[in-house]
Structure formats: C-alpha cells, structure tokens
Amino acid sequence: MSGGAHLAAKVAGMLLSIGAILFMWHTMPGYVEITAPFVTRGDAGEWVHTRTFGVRVDKSYLSRTLRQTSFGRSEERTTSGVWVIVKVDALAVHEPSMIGAFALQTEDGRRYQHTERVRLSRKVGLLGRELQPEMPVAALLVFEVPEDVVANLMLIAGEREIPHLTSEAHISLRWQSSNPLTSIRDTLDLGS
Amino acid sequence: MQTSSAAAPGTSSLTPGAAIDAGQWRVKPLRARISTEHPLRRASTRNSYLLVDVEFTNLMQRSSRDFAFVVTLDQPELARLGEPSIVLVRDMALPDRLHPRMPETLMLVWQLPTDVTLPPELHLSILGKTFKAADNLVGSPGWFNPAPVAHVALSLSAP
Amino acid sequence: MSNELFARRRSLITFAVLLPAVIWMSAREDFAIARQSRATNAIDAMPAQAAQFSGFNWRLIDLKAAPTERTPEATQVEARLQIIATAREAAQSMRNCRVYLEDSTGQRWSAQPSRRGDISCAQLPDIDATEKPVMLVARFVIPTYRAEYVSLAVVIPKQRPRYLRFHFQRS
Asked: Least CB-CB distance to A135: which of C100, C106, C141?
C-alpha cells in the first residue's frame, strides 16, 4: 500500500466517524420523546383500553353556563368560551387504577386541561376515584374551550398530569350535528 | 424576585389598558384601587387592601397556572407588602389554571399594613420568562428566568 | 500471525465476560427496584391455618359474599382477618398495607374505603396489636361472575415482591 493511499483512507475514516457522530447527535431523541406516554387511539362510542385503564366516550354536551349546588347553595359558572361536558365510562385494567389527568386537544395541538372551577363529587367526577377491573363506572369530565375549536376536539385521558411513561387514551369527540355550535345549551345542571 | 427601576433598559412602558406579550402571557393591566373589603374574606372594617386588576391571556400550548410571578410592585417602599393573593374575577374565587387563548381578569390582592401610605400612582413591573427547548437538567422544554419586560403606572383610586 | 489470533481470541472472551458484568453492575439497583415495586410472589395460606407474614400472625376468619341490592351483576364481599403481632416493631412495617381480592389470572380488586369503626390494615401502625388480636375488615364490590373464584391478597410495600394470599375453601 502506498503512503498516499494510506493517508487518504485514514482521513476518509475520520470524516466518516465525525459525520456519524454529528448525525447521531442531531437525531438523538430528547427527554420528552424518550419519556413519551404510551398512546392508545380510538373513536367515540367504543372502549379504548390502555395498559392500566379503559375509557369509553358516551356523549358530549356544550353549554354557556354550568349550574351546581354546593353546600346547599346554587352556583353558576360562566366562561369566556363554551363549556364542554363529556360523559364517559371508565374501568381499570388488571389492577385498581386511576385516571388522574384529562384534557381536550385542538387540531393544532393546544391542550385544554380539565377545569377545577367546577368541583364534581366523587360519584360524578373521575378525579381521586379508584377504578376497579371489569366494573365500569359513569363519570362526567368538564372543560372550557374557545368556541372556534369545538368542531375538532380530542379527549386525552391519562394516568397523571405529568405523563412520563404513563398510559394515555386519545379519543376524538363526535358531534351529532355538523355544526355543533348550534347545539349549545344556555345552562346545564350538574346537580350537587 | 427581581425588580428594577422604571428606567431599566430593554423594557417598554405601557399605558393602562394596553396589552403586552410577555412570554407565556399576554398581560393587560387594567386598574388599581384601595378597598376595605377582601373579595374572598368576610367584611371587616379594620383592614384595607390594595387591589390590582390584570387581564391574562395564555399564549402557551397548554393550560397553566404559572402567573403568580408576572406582576410585581416596583416602589421600594411597597416591598414589604409581600406576595399578593390572586382572585379569579369571573368567579370571585381562587383561580384555576388559565387555558390557552381564553382571556381572564385576575385580581391581585395585597393586604395593607396600617402604617403604609400609598403613593398616588402605582408602578408595576411585568415580568416574562424565556422559553428554552431543553433545560440543563434533563433536556425537557420549559419557561425559565423571569425578567422585567414592561412597566406600567396605574393611578390609585380611593374606594 | 498465530500470536495475533491469540490476542484477538483473548479480547473476544474478555468482552463476552465484561459486557454482562458491566450491565449487571449498572442496572442491578434498577432491577431490584422494579422487582420490589410489584407484589408477584405469593405466600399461599389456607383459610383455616394461621400464616406468619411481616411480623404478624394472620388468620382469615370469615369471608361473606352477597349480591348488592341495586345490581345483581355486582357482588359485595366482606373479609374478616384476625391478626396479632409477633414482634413489637411489626406494626411500623405495615405502612401502606393494602388488601385485595385476586382471581386466578392475577387480576385484583381493592377494598372500598373503610367504614367508621372498622379497622383496615393501613391503620395498623397507629394501633397496638401486640397484646390482643385485632380484627381487620375489608369490603369489596366485584363482578358476580368472579365472586366464586377469588382469593384474598395482603400486600405490604416493605415485603414486596412477596405477599400473603389466602385461598378459600369453596363449599
């Protein structure tokens, strides 16, 4: 082997290594991707089972105002947008579990997490409620969103607010009319 | 918490009722007043409160309650008022997370010690955080380093 | 040339030994944590006999199943366990203890919030059970078609992956 060719091979090898390192550096997944949740997708009306829980979207309602009785007093809650109330059934898979976070996601990726302006009792809401396998329970989820995003919303239900390596169900909401804004009620009573 | 004088470089001066985009939030200071009533507590004649209404619009991709650091009092003689409590004006209750692109007015409430005399004009700083795509600890994205981005002077009206 | 062959073989063998050793050394703790985060190894006991577990003597006294009033598809199961401490410091190790019903596939149901006056096993650190036995009560609501084929599992975080399991004698 001549000296020139040997040197050329060395340089080529080095450039190849540097290129490989740069390529790996730029394509290395970030922390968020490495710890991304395990997503199960499904449609409204069908059971969507993740590793730890199952959820089924039953029906969704829109309202301008929510009414609720707490401590014997009737309270009204208004919003600058519109209230979305999603009726769901939920159960645990294999072991008792909880659904600790839910949000509505718009088409462009904005996430509207569930409201805490309305406090649902454990019989009606899902927060803090331990789910059991093969024992579905009905629950209401409440969100507020701007009017212009209502037509395309996806429910995201997950184990925890910080979704690192947890399970998540993504379910597109379905509206009966093509323009759901025509079905907004003035008031919806959530009971007590 | 960092505060700086009204002449800090790189910050703009706001007129009351005008909005500024300060990182996570679009902030619109509305009005300031003194009241003898705390919006969340039972009426008492002994105390008085400084109330400042500010409209917040969430510019982020998700709901957030990271708004407590945004508005600070500039005047050094008011430094001992401490941190305000925050009230969601729509409910007159403690605020929940604010949701993307849904403006809400928050009321900042400072209890006034009896020996404090308020100036006729209140100087406020609006702070904003900077977005980092990867933090230095684990490389997750987030908002860091609050710094003043604007100042506003609100005239104080008596109750 | 044979010298080089020898060196290569030696390197290959060293690599084959070192790689698993390094993986084991760096991941040993994670394996241990993963193992201890789940209750997988059952200590089986028959209802009539008393079992030793976590410094206590356990005896399953009673297990009643009755369909719930509102829905026949759901069955309420009520378990009574008598326990007595065999060591003075045993109660402290019971922190976050939980009782489950378990079917043959390992599917588990947790107990409902305990009623006033009932003692659950999570309360044990605050109760003196060294002198006289304590009666624990746990109530479950499970699907009726599972009620016949479940056993009672006692899971104590400190003892994981081991846990205590009572099999019922079916009449």
From this structure: C141
